[in-house]
Design goal:
Two copies of one chain form a homodimer. By secondary structure, chain A is an alpha+beta fold. Helix content of chain A is about 25%, strand content about 40%. The first copy, chain A, has three helices and six strands. The mean pLDDT of chain A is about 95.
Chain lengths: ~130, ~130
């Protein structure tokens, strides 16, 4: 059976592709953080939404994320996702890494829904920067 | 100011060096998981304690972990730690990677203490295995 979180990440990737950031924000906790790029962090849904809009604009609204191999490490209401994240875009030579080994932390809320609390698509590569 | 979690990890490293696994277990949540090696996971304090004892025996009780560069990504009561983890031991050619880029997830409990919920010293290298 596919892990529920894998399905949620698929929905997030589709929402990013469709530039549907209202939908996308449903999958984040209120106080979530997003590593926009090394050294730059968006905190909370409003900042994260703005960051995604800026990223989409930067890529001429042609960005399309997808996931390759994925490992989900689950401890009760907390899960660490390690995932090969691929970014496709019409914009070439963007200066962004398009093939990443990402780390996402999800939390299960009281309704039993998994929401993203920490979105770090750079994974352990942050240590290189 | 040093982040509280950094201090806790330092205490954990010392407890491992001293083979004081009773003390070490104070820094894990009840339902924590430990990636012992790729494909092998210990669940809950009792399994984690046994895994640490087995690892210590394997290294002839000479294992000494320490941390290099560390980044702590904090979202309310959840934190993702990305850390260069170095393992030193008298045993050479152990078959274990001794220089890792680890991922740890910490949760803050109701008393305000940070506890390790997910201990994955292999970081995103799990995707290679």
């Amino acid at each position: 059976m596919t892990h529920e979180i894998k399905e949620i990440i698929k929905k997030c990737d589709l929402a990013i592709k469709n530039a549907d950031f209202d939908l996308l924000m449903n999958y984040y906790t209120e106080d979530a953080i997003l590593v926009v790029k090394p050294g730059m962090i968006a905190k909370g849904k409003e900042e994260i939404r703005k960051a995604f809009i800026a990223i989409a604009n930067y890529f001429n609204n042609s960005i399309e994320p997808s996931q390759g191999d994925m490992i989900i490490l689950e401890a009760e209401d907390t899960a660490l996702v390690i995932s090969q994240t691929l970014l496709d875009s019409d914009k070439k030579d963007s200066g962004y890494s398009m093939d990443r080994r990402a780390t996402y932390v999800f939390r299960k809320n009281l309704s039993g829904e998994w929401l993203c609390a920490i979105d770090n698509s750079y994974g352990t590569d942050l240590l290189n920067k």
